[in-house]
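Risk register update: the risk that structure generation would not scale has been downgraded. Supporting records follow, first protein first.
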Amino acid sequence: MIFDIVQKNNLSRTGILHTCKGDLPTPFFMPDATRASVRGLTVEQLKTVGVLPMVVNTYHLYLQPGMDFMQKVGGVHAFMQWDGPLLSDSGGYQVYSLIHKNAKMGEITEEGAIFKSVLDGSRHLLTPEKAIQIQFDLGVDMMVLLDDPRPNNSSQDVFAAAVRRTVRWAQRCRDEFDRQIVARGLTDATRPLLFGVVQGGPFFDLRQECAEGLIAVGCDGYSFGGRHVDMEGNFMEEMIAKTASYIPEGAPRFALGIGTPEDIVRCHNVGWDMFDCVIPTREGRHGRLFIWEDGVKSGNTFYSTINIGNAQYREDFTPIDPTCDCYTCTTYTRAYIQHLFRVKEPLGAQMAALHNLRYFMRLMEDLRRV
């Protein structure tokens, strides 16, 4: 079994995801190690706050340092000195974002996505087969199929075409995945897990069609693709819940890119198991810090935020969060972290990011106790 459900509470559940790098308790949150690092933090620091898996960015690592280099160093685990599980995206979202922002940067065809490198202008073709090959070369433990995401303001016809292409590409990804397993001599115990991406935008019937198509292809887990908020920025709660219901009960469900604490809790409550986002580290670098409040089980507000750059913290000699056990909170005061930000000392951003990651890990620990 890839995924064992340990306990259910209405639609939410806790479980164990089995990977070739070890078992992961769910739900879990993955910080984004975009270029084989979580910006400003060492792997030792990440372990101290309880980080389990991380997400590496296929698109960025493909462009730099490149796959020839990655094969020479023995894959991304060896390169970044991380011995825990890693998940890679397909690279598709970054390519499509690039193309959607500037049509001169490439185009999407049935064969794949053609794009120009932002580094040197060179042209590349990302096919479903190549997306899988790259992720195998990275040596990750969980990988994502290449899909065709579309902006939320697209028409239903555009979304329908993208869903059908996503399913066609999924079959090509699956075929290449199976070829790579044989070619590399992998077994069920040593192979990576494969996640499909359920697209369909704001249309329930298309989400269901996409999910059913991916299930027919055969994946280990399934992801929520595209934006989880509507054009007004409202959380698409019914769509999130319905999409989860389209995914088999016994499969892990990955809420791609969903990362505010309240959105994580909302998704967990309707059956999602895995989360990733840049929010904890990015917000930390900008001085926005998460503070633990009543806790998830109380049903009340479970966090607040402070902007450590505000003058009110200049002589505040209390910890960032008195309830937190991270290095930042057990070592420094708000006044000191505020001083570091004021003088633009990088240590401030590092300590803030470290604390925020610990907050997110505590949130996951609390959800696993619900």
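Supporting record for the second protein:
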Amino acid sequence: MKENIICLTDIEVKTFFPNNQFGKVKELLGSHICINPEELSGEEQWLDVLKKYNPEIIVAAWKTPALPDLLSELAPNFRYLCYLPGSVRKIIPRSIIENGAHVTNWSGSVSRTVAECAVLLALCCMRRVRYWTEEMHFKGGWKTAETTTQSLFERRVGIHGFGLIAQETAKLLRPFTSNISAFSPSVPDEIFLKHGVSRCDSLEKLFSENDVIVELAALTEHNQKIITEELLRSLPDGAAFVNVGRGAVVDEEALARVASEKDLQVALDVYGVEPLPKDSPFRGMSNVMLLPHLAGPTTDRRQDAGAHALENLRRYLQSEPLVDQLTVGMYDRAS
């Protein structure tokens, strides 16, 4: 039997494909079966499903079980994984892509929402929103003659990494400042020029010469804990460090120490261990704003990723080039 597989939860269907967009997906796929991964009894049943239906296309999301290394033996007809969210590392082995399978994810379709959160957190740092939220709600606080405030206007902003999300962040920062630089050695000069962003030639310079740092570097073997205590201490007094990229890029123990000792505002959406442990030193710090890894896409904008997936399904079925198809190199750089 050959049936394409849609393996999504009810919530994933509702949020990625609102307004009857799911009907368009099913119409495009033709012969298919819908499976709710929450109703699967385990890995063995999932492997039986793959073997039984031998799909050419699998539409998947967060709850979909991983595809096995031996997928070609179970489902020799498989050609395309249309993955609705971001990182595919936990769902498909590298070897399957090496052997020619097509893989797409939400790619740049969600970049603007993550960038939106990055700018929000930068603004919150400038205005000390974390501090004033607690002071006013729980301590009866109010400003005094000694209260100081900061604006994002005319600030020097440095971005670590300059992929699609970083590029969108630079766009959203434009109303506030033109003084934007980034450190990303692998990105060509023409991309920097296109976005009017200055290339920074070292992390040391990026940190020591900017008032706001937005962390958006990919988590690679080289980048593990690349943000060191020395770099964090080199930030100017009153600076802000915002991480909406990957937690493990940062030496988090060092960040907690520096945040407790230095005039530094911190805003974090990602962490080396998630969920963030209840005893994390970041919890309770008045200069550290925390979000539970929800920078993007927001629930209401998952439909952007759904529209991206729908377009790629159409392209695949019409033998057209896919938008932002993942390569082995992209897989290796992904977190």
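The first strand starts at residue 4 and ends at 7. On this basis the risk owner (M.S.) recommends closing the item.
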